[in-house]
């Protein structure tokens, strides 16, 4: 039960036991996960893998998110999301533990790595869609923006520490330790979720409805809001043309340096620091037109890929990624809070699943194209082109009427 007196205490939303447990588990698992991209990428580079193989590994994790997210959304709306999230943590813990063991004994073949990271992706597909709905069961609607902001700060602090730790493990004891700790973080998250108590409040829906009917209802709820599907299309383009290449080519940009893993880990940590500050800022902001505010924040995104494409000093690159982290945090908090208030709770997991599917459906393609783009255009040109295209698209979207359709009001007042 939500205690409104606690919401006014010094602890604020963290004074509520169930939300605090959820936030703690999310923070721990995020810290573990934040170590892995740097550690795994440089472990592959050290084994002689090129950008093509690194892209393939990242795509193998992203592909299940595309294929299975809708299924995860239906399950989360039919049953309690908590059970799916615990199952997802268990799957990912086992997969990461096996991968760490293979790296310890130096028998992690490329095919086995692909299989294990795919299992991690399956866990993500089961976990992600139900998180929005689960949060609405922990806090009331008027507290959702603050709760999302607190979660963003926690995840961002993990993003600050995690990449630096991952780079440090690569430079000292080896990437396997970072991946083993990620496995432990999923176990800790599952244990936290087991302790969360929520009231079971069944939604008014037919229990005998079919999977296809549930999917159709979710699709109907998704497509009737023009601002949702237009923004999701934009997110898909951003992830494909810029974010996926940035993850692969950014690491490759530093792979030739003696302390390249530490340098790239430092940049990713600075993005986490910016996101932590962005989370604090998001606690104070209540924009009247949240979609327009999201796009204004996204004008800052191109700084991250563009700063790597030109000969800026390292401190300037750190500053650009810090600003990029601030942008990312505010975009995520505004987007999640607006969806949570605009979509009926009984359909939120399915709409979130369509959101995730649309936003990330082309991410595997982006990873797959990163290597060929680097060979065709060069690393710096590929990063520059991606950042420039996103900047142009953001400016175009800001000129469209739909950005003013949604207000930052109560759920009943949100326009479709």
TrEMBL record:
<protein>
    <submittedName>
        <fullName>MFS transporter</fullName>
    </submittedName>
</protein>
<feature type="transmembrane region" description="Helical">
    <location>
        <begin position="149"/>
        <end position="169"/>
    </location>
</feature>
<feature type="transmembrane region" description="Helical">
    <location>
        <begin position="383"/>
        <end position="403"/>
    </location>
</feature>
<dbReference type="InterPro" id="IPR020846">
    <property type="entry name" value="MFS_dom"/>
</dbReference>
<dbReference type="InterPro" id="IPR022324">
    <property type="entry name" value="Bacilysin_exporter_BacE_put"/>
</dbReference>
<keyword id="KW-1003">Cell membrane</keyword>
<feature type="transmembrane region" description="Helical">
    <location>
        <begin position="57"/>
        <end position="76"/>
    </location>
</feature>
<dbReference type="GO" id="GO:0022857">
    <property type="term" value="F:transmembrane transporter activity"/>
</dbReference>
<feature type="transmembrane region" description="Helical">
    <location>
        <begin position="227"/>
        <end position="246"/>
    </location>
</feature>
<feature type="transmembrane region" description="Helical">
    <location>
        <begin position="261"/>
        <end position="283"/>
    </location>
</feature>
<keyword id="KW-0813">Transport</keyword>
<feature type="transmembrane region" description="Helical">
    <location>
        <begin position="20"/>
        <end position="45"/>
    </location>
</feature>
<dbReference type="InterPro" id="IPR036259">
    <property type="entry name" value="MFS_trans_sf"/>
</dbReference>
<dbReference type="InterPro" id="IPR010290">
    <property type="entry name" value="TM_effector"/>
</dbReference>
<keyword id="KW-0812">Transmembrane</keyword>
<keyword id="KW-1133">Transmembrane helix</keyword>
<feature type="domain" description="Major facilitator superfamily (MFS) profile">
    <location>
        <begin position="18"/>
        <end position="416"/>
    </location>
</feature>
<dbReference type="GO" id="GO:0005886">
    <property type="term" value="C:plasma membrane"/>
</dbReference>
<dbReference type="Pfam" id="PF05977">
    <property type="entry name" value="MFS_3"/>
</dbReference>
<feature type="transmembrane region" description="Helical">
    <location>
        <begin position="295"/>
        <end position="316"/>
    </location>
</feature>
<keyword id="KW-0472">Membrane</keyword>
<feature type="transmembrane region" description="Helical">
    <location>
        <begin position="357"/>
        <end position="376"/>
    </location>
</feature>
